[in-house]
Amino acid sequence: MIKYFSLLMLSMFCLHATPILTPTWKFDVNASVKDMVLSHDTLVIGTDNGTLKVYNLKEKKFTKIITLPKVKDFMGDFMPPKVFSVDTVDHKYVLLSDSGKGGYVNVWIDDNNKTTQIISAKDKKVIVKVRFIDATHLLFGYLSNEVALYDLQNHTELYRVQLSESKFSDFALNEIKKQAVFACESGVLNVIDILTGKVVKVLQGQNLDNVHMVDFKKEVVSAAGQDRRGAIYNVNTGKGSYISSDFFIYATGLSPSAKMVAFTMHEDNTITVFRQNDKSKIAELKGQHSTLNSILFQDEHTIYASSNNSIVMMWKLP
User: Model-level pTM?
Assistant: First the structure.
């Protein structure tokens, strides 16, 4: 009888235990990944080896590689620049890289296999992140926590707005690219109207320290906090809540429907996936061994993630 009861309890525990998943598939970029975005059936990857690499997920191979010129480091040696931020739209690519000069950056546009520099160290810009709004406009996130909308046709900033005195951390566009949420070291999130740069909503109270990463889908914002809180906000109401972690949370991602949210929750870089509405655990994703810098849902069951090493991994949720 005791044996039967023990087996029953074990089976009940197994039914309710969080599935622990290992990668279904992975590939090697052959350089440390600094940024990664998902565009249809391709991953666009920026590396620390001066390259942007486009990986076709259906063909499972690299279909495009853009290599930037080497830059002089502080010792005077020529080195490949780090490509900190990348994006794509309409077969056009943007690359933000270090210039080797005083923390200023270079920005490049690749169009029809022609790579053109649009910003150099001479412009003295300290931009941390760049994303396409459309084929002729870029959104910049400055280290000084300024947001700027850049016109590629006229080579000028249409506006540049200071959001706060805190240092910038990250920004994320919503799925229709009409709004963006900006994160900083204070833990306060600013939702801006991209057309004007005006703040339309301030989200606060859930993170009390630096927010490393944000995502924004279906009027939901997730925020990965240094204070070991994974925050979730409803943009319409401004109300939020958080999930506690036992380690700093460096990365987050929302599924396309925003019904699921993922956070890095542990020192071993495990990604935990939750149901967004009730915060119940769906799965723990194991495999990455460095600090995560992207978590990308391709759909409601497929997740890609990169970290500060060369391996990109994919998991399938149950």
Answer: 0.92
